[in-house]
Amino acid sequence: MSSERILVVDDQPINVQLLKRKLERCGLAVSTANNGLEALEQVKLHKPDLILLDLMMPDMDGIEVCQRLQERSDTRSIPVIFVTARTTKESKLEGLAVGAVDYITKPIDLDETVARVQTQLRFAAINRENLELQRRLEESRRAATIGAVAQGIAHNLNNLLGVVIGYLDLIKAGYDKPPVVKKNAQNVDDAIQRIVGIIRQLSTLVVKSRPDLARVPLERLIDGGIRRFHNDYKLTAGVVVNNATPDLEIDTNIETFEEVLSKVLMNAWESYQDSPAEQRPISIYTRVFDKARGEKMLEIRVDDSGRGIAEEIRDRMFEPFVSTKRTVGVGMGLTIARHSLRSVGGEVTMSSRPEGGSSAVLVHPVRDPRRRDKSQDDEE
């Protein structure tokens, strides 16, 4: 017996029995339901690999059943084939619009039905294989990242410890010269603070749980990110904000959001290299757009007119310790920003601007999908 399970849903018992018998003869496991509510209960008990769903049923028709399945993240991917006596183009389009993958018209040709079922099962198997491949690729990338982090830690900490030891030797050699001792002691302190900074950033990377989210006005988040940018890096740089959504509120973690925006702003600031502070324009633009299935997303674009993205790091700029600067202990800003934003369902990308400089694009869900799914579960 095949491990693949088919759910047959029809309010006519004879249709159910005919389909069940034919599919079982082809080696498929079959469960049945005689109405929409019973079908949803069956899906909860034993999630099927495919559903043959009658379109016209009393109380809850096939369209509503399919819509209910599409609303839940754990049932959204189940392929549904509608079975109906309606043959109009409009009815077929209506079924496909709510997530059905195919359409079978009555009277049912059992051999054709089996062929279509097996075709959709093959598609589903290919999709599962692709998802597994993506998972393995992600694990490989994660392992490569861990290796890069470990190598970067060793390189940077060794360099910084070498700096500390060097300045301590200078302090020992000039112990009777207070100005020299004071200067070198400050250099030791600076190097130690860089070591502490690396350890703090690494602590951010290893956090696995998703942070708690709260509904926060976007304007407050942007102001907080700019303020943090100024405070963390001891800067007074002007940042022009063009907020096209001043009344927007999003579900996010305040600490994470402000940290990400602060690091992206610092990356924009550093792109100007040695330019005077008053010649380092940075602009923020916001917009809301619809993603797949109508999910609203916030986009925050941070533009600068600096040197742009260096060719030698273009494909590796989000890897840890990758930087065009020669100073040790740097190159984690964008790595931390991407990791942090992904922890709340967002993403960070970088691109060059045609007019010069670069754009960092932060994408963040407007609403927490977990809250949406929970509300749907409560309704059911």
Short description:
The protein is α/β, with parallel strands linked by helices and 380 residues long. The chain has helices at 13-25, 36-45, 62-71, 89-97, 110-173, 178-205, 218-232, 254-270, 333-342, 369-379, and strands at 5-9, 29-33, 50-54, 80-84, 102-105, 214-217, 239-242, 249-252, 282-290, 296-304, 347-352, 358-365. It has 2 domains: 5-108, Response regulator (Rossmann fold); 208-380, Histidine kinase-like ATPase, C-terminal domain (Heat Shock Protein 90, 2-Layer Sandwich), CATH 3.30.565.
Question: Your description of this structure?
Answer:
With 380 residues, the chain is of the alpha/beta class. It has two domains: 104 residues, Rossmann fold (3-Layer(aba) Sandwich); 173 residues, Histidine kinase-like ATPase, C-terminal domain (Heat Shock Protein 90). It has ten helices and twelve strands. A five-stranded parallel β-sheet has the order 2-1-3-4-5, with helices on both faces. Helix 2 runs parallel beside helix 3 and helix 8 runs antiparallel to helix 9.
Give me the secondary-structure topology.
Layout: E1 5-9, H1 13-25, E2 29-33, H2 36-45, E3 50-54, H3 62-71, E4 80-84, H4 89-97, E5 102-105, H5 110-173, H6 178-205, E6 214-217, H7 218-232, E7 239-242, E8 249-252, H8 254-270, E9 282-290, E10 296-304, H9 333-342, E11 347-352, E12 358-365, H10 369-379
Helix pairs in contact: 2-3, 5-6, 7-8, 8-9
